[in-house]
């Protein structure tokens, strides 16, 4: 009977939204099982700090059945700034993408650099890494994979090299995260830290991360160049065939160049506004809307075409935006049931005698594993940071290091777990199997883990 069940039914990983709903339900059960309690808090230097030793049990506040479902809209309202920022940035990218600026711009750059073949891999990966740490390039990675493969095959490499250039390039920047609003920005907002603060050490670690990725891809590409039979996707290359024709770039117009220029300008403006005027997600959203509309009109989309493209862009980003509400719903339940402080109290009691360096590594591993179930940086930040921040306060660990543990745990696992829609979508476009990807990527992923653990340890030693 059991064999028959497994034969007729394929076991599938639960949908991310379904999993988050299960966690919300589980959290509601915890409000009856875990004693309610709370810490006293105080305001200091703009942060709400937990006062050590102030934990007290209070009257049990179990949530109702209706509260389970009300937590989702309450979560969306609570995370409204972030939700609408994600939607509006997605809309802006939808507009610029519709003008053809991304594809044609990248093609033009690659064709211009064509004679410097040895530099193609590091330059391509650096470009995508910049997009990764500045605007959190994620879902958009998928549309660039075919371009990466064309570049790689033109240079005599294989499809895996081309896909890795794009995926690992963007991932390197995403891990660095110096100006990434979706991970570092959200996590620092929850931790009540100045947005994008502490970027100096992140930049140093990013350089090592990017160097490891470029080295890994170039070593593999050199092996493939010498002997194509050693390619991990050799069968695919035999079927696809090697096209030694010169890569033909579509015409890159001045209008498209202006559209890309507007995106670059709004990123710079947002960074300046954050550090100079203390801007948050609302101001950044407004700037992206303005830049997107200008790019659409200048790009020749017209009034209706511009807004159609904006809606299409919002549709593409729907998964990441709505997941924020579900993730926040978990915290809404735990806060309403007044058990979140009890969980923090229990965890800090267990970790009280553990060295700070090991606590940080434990946080990193926890965030790394959680990304299997919550493959959304902003969603994971909103789910876990409300727990991690009080723990770090009580154990006298700087909140910046707690953000690092989240940032690295979330970002590295994005190129490992099959629950990552971005990774699986990119591999599907390149016709690369997940097993082939693992055979190639495990070494660089291990290197990244080691680099990040060393980086967090150094941060702890220098009082980052």
From TrEMBL:
Pfam families: DcuC
Location of the protein in the cell: Cell membrane
Keywords of the record: Cell membrane, Membrane, Transmembrane, Transmembrane helix
Membrane topology (UniProt): Multi-pass membrane protein
Primary localization class, coarse: membrane
UniProt xrefs under InterPro entries: C4_dicarb_anaerob_car-like, DASS-Related_Transporters
TM regions (residue ranges): 16-34, 76-96, 116-138, 159-179, 199-221, 257-279, 285-305, 317-334, 354-374, 415-434, 440-462
Keyword Cytoplasm: no
GO cellular component annotations of the record: plasma membrane
Name by which UniProt lists this protein: YfcC family protein
Organism of derivation: Staphylococcus shinii
Organism phylogeny: Bacteria, Bacillati, Bacillota, Bacilli, Bacillales
């Amino acid at each position: 009977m059991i064999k028959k069940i497994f034969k007729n039914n394929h076991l599938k990983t639960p949908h991310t939204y379904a999993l988050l709903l299960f966690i919300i339900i589980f959290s509601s059960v915890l409000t009856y099982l875990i004693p309610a309690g709370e810490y006293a808090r105080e305001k200091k230097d703009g942060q709400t700090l937990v006062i050590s030793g102030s934990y007290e049990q209070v009257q049990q506040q179990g949530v109702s059945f209706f509260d389970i479902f009300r937590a989702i809209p309450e979560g969306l309202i609570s995370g409204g700034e972030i939700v609408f920022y994600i939607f509006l940035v997605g809309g802006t990218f939808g507009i610029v993408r519709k003008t053809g600026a991304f594809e044609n711009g990248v093609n033009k750059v690659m064709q211009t650099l064509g004679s410097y073949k040895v530099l193609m891999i590091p330059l391509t990966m650096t470009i995508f890494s910049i997009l990764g740490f500045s605007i959190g390039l994620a879902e958009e990675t998928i549309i660039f994979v075919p371009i990466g493969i064309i570049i790689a095959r033109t240079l005599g490499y294989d499809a895996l090299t081309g896909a890795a250039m794009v995926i690992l390039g963007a991932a390197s920047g995403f891990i660095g995260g110096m100006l990434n609003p979706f991970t570092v920005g959200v996590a620092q907002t929850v931790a009540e830290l100045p947005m994008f603060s502490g970027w100096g050490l992140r930049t140093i670690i990013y350089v090592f991360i990017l160097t490891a990725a470029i080295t890994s891809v170039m070593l593999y590409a050199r092996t493939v160049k010498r002997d194509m039979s050693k390619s991990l996707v050799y069968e695919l290359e035999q079927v696809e065939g090697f096209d030694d024709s010169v890569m033909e770039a579509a015409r890159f117009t001045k209008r498209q160049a202006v559209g890309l220029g507007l995106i670059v300008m709004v990123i710079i403006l947002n960074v300046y506004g954050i550090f100079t005027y203390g801007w948050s997600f609302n101001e950044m959203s407004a700037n992206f809307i303005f830049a997107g509309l200008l790019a659409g009109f200048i790009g020749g989309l017209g009034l209706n075409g511009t807004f159609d493209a904006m809606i299409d862009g919002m549709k593409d980003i729907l998964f990441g935006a709505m997941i924020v509400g579900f993730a926040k719903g978990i915290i809404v339940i735990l806060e309403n049931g007044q058990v979140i402080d009890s969980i923090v109290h229990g965890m800090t009691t267990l970790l009280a005698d553990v060295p700070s360096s090991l606590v940080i590594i434990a946080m990193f591993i926890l965030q790394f594993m959680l990304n299997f179930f919550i493959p959304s940086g902003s969603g994971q930040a909103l789910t876990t940071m409300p727990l991690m921040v009080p723990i770090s306060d009580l154990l006298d660990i700087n909140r910046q290091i707690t953000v690092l543990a989240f940032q690295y745990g979330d970002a590295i696992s994005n190129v490992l777990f099959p629950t990552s829609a971005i990774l699986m979508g990119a591999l599907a476009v390149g016709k690369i199997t997940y097993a082939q990807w693992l055979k190639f990527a495990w070494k660089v992923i291990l290197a990244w883990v080691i680099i990040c653990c060393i980086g967090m340890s150094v941060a702890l030693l220098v009082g980052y």
